[in-house]
Amino acid sequence: MNKFIIDNIACHTERESVSGNRKELPKVIDQIMASMADKTCFAHIGDEPIHFTTSVKEMIDKFREILFPGYFTKEKVDAANILYNTGQAVSQLYDILSEQIIHVLRHDCLRYDLQCAECEPRGNDVALDVIRAIPDLRQSLAQDVKGAYDGDPAAKSHDEVIFSYPGLYAIMVYRIANLLYKKNIPQLPRIMSEYAHSHTGIDIHPGATIGNRFVIDHGTGVVVGETAWIGNNVRIYQHVTIGALSLPPNAGEKLRDAKRHPTIEDDVIIYSGATILGGDTVIGARAVVGGNVWLTQSVPADTKVFMEPPHLIYKNHEKESCHETPV
Questions:
Q1: Please, what CATH class does the domain formed by 47-202 belong to?
Q2: Strand partners, 312
Q3: By three-state DSSP, how is residue 38 classified?
Q4: CB–CB of 182/163 below 8 Å?
Q5: Is residue 71 over pLDDT 70?
Q6: How far apart are CA 120 and CA 313, in angstroms?
Q7: What is the pLDDT of residue 207?
Q8: Which is it for the CA torsion 194, 63, 214, 71, positive or negative?
Q9: Cα 45 to Cα 36, 89, 162, distances in angstroms
Q10: Which of 46, 133, 213, 219 has the fewest CB atoms within 10 Å distance of its CB?
Q11: Average pLDDT across the chain, whole number
């Protein structure tokens, strides 16, 4: 039998196999549809659609364009066009932001059968309030930029921090989302934070309270919980967790509004890999927490906390002996 006939038979066999699998799909679809009647699972059928992440990205990009004028625009910004560009950007941001806020308010109102909150007027008012806060946001972010530059010899300019530091990006999104969180806007602040998380690897809950000159160096794997309180001039490095202690399965509703995350006072430095947990844990002012430290209790001000130096083992395969030395 020649190769052409063999290949032809193989092709027919493969087509029949695919066709057989597709014939099974209606049965599988019926099973999936039947599972949707199970009230113990979750479905979002017949409700207002949740807004798209692309709209949130567009909104964050527009905020960034206004908060750092001239840095992230496609065209050159100068004295001749800055008023026009800013006016257009602010107008566009207002439309996007108000639409997003109205959308999440209406979604929750209809889905959870809430008392009417006048979604549209409230959404427009909150959007205007947030835009009014932009001058203050610019001041806060300017302090964050200066903090990053002043504490990092690798930073060659403030522009480098603004253009390329993921920590600053995550902090910017946090500061915007925090304004919306304080105004009890559902979902949107968390979706913004999760977008920044996916973009930078830095997870800051919008409910956290964070002071000025906050610096996240490198940043990958950083977690800051909802009820964390962080003072001024705090610097943290990659893989730092400022989190909550593990809770029993039924504690969620009971402790939902309780302080579950640590307090970090002014001028604290927390090195990479440190884990600090618990709502009663306070890291005092000017303390230094070393790398890979695990803390569930408070640290006094002006204290350094380090792990005991580990021991490294060097194996010489030729002599089959070990040499152990402290780091």
A1: mainly alpha
A2: 325
A3: coil
A4: no
A5: yes
A6: 66
A7: 97
A8: positive
A9: 10, 36, 42
A10: 46
A11: 89
Global pTM reads 0.85
What is the structure's pLDDT at 114?
A: 75
Output 254 or 133, whichever has higher pLDDT.
133
H helix or E strand, kind and range, residue 153: none
Q: What Cα–Cα distance (Å) separates residue 289 from each residue in 220, 225, 243, 272, 303?
A: 18, 18, 15, 9, 8
Q: Identify the architecture of domain 208-327 in CATH.
A: 3 Solenoid (2.160)
| 3-state SS string for 298-310 | CECCCCEECCCCC
Exposure of 237 by Cβ count < 10 A (0-12 exposed, 13-18 middle, 19+ buried)? buried
- H/E stretch holding 311: strand 311-316
Q: Environment class of residue 284 by beta-carbon count within 10 Å: exposed (0-12), middle (13-18) or buried (19+)?
A: middle
In this structure, which amino acid lies at residue 287? Answer: A
- Does residue 3 have a pLDDT over 60? no
- Residue bearing the bigger pLDDT, 116 or 222: 222
User: Which residue type, as a one-letter code, is found at position 69?
Assistant: P
Contacting residues for 233 by C-beta, under 8 A, at least 6 apart: 147, 211, 212, 213, 266, 267
The residue ranges of every structural domain in the chain are: 47-202, 208-327
Q: Which amino acid is at 269?
A: I
